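R.M. (postdoc): so does anyone remember the format we settled on? I'll just put the structure tokens first.
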């Protein structure tokens, strides 16, 4: 039985060829269940901050009532998670 390896060839903005193997993408797919909800919470935090600054509307308090502080904490934790997951090259 032969092993099948997935190779992905990409060109970056400088014209260099990047080869991504299956093992390099496996960890990214495994964390999708945590990355996507945290991304949604980070976007919601940005909208919350914008509504607060422009209109003075506290959307988290309006939507979640007494649980607004918990939601805001989750938004902050999500932002930290997304920041730590970034790869700065």
């Amino acid at each position: 039985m032969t092993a099948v390896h997935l190779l992905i060839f990409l060109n970056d903005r400088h014209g260099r060829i990047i080869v991504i193997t299956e093992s390099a993408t496996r960890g990214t797919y495994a964390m999708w269940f945590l990355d996507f909800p945290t991304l949604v919470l980070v976007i919601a935090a940005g909208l919350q901050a914008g509504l607060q600054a422009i209109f003075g509307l506290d959307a988290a308090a309006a939507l979640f009532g007494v649980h607004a502080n918990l939601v805001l904490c989750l938004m902050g934790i999500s932002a930290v998670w997304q920041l730590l997951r970034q790869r700065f090259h």
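R.M.: ...and that's the designed sequence above, right after the tokens. Also worth knowing: The chain has a mean pLDDT of 80. The chain has one domain: 7-85.
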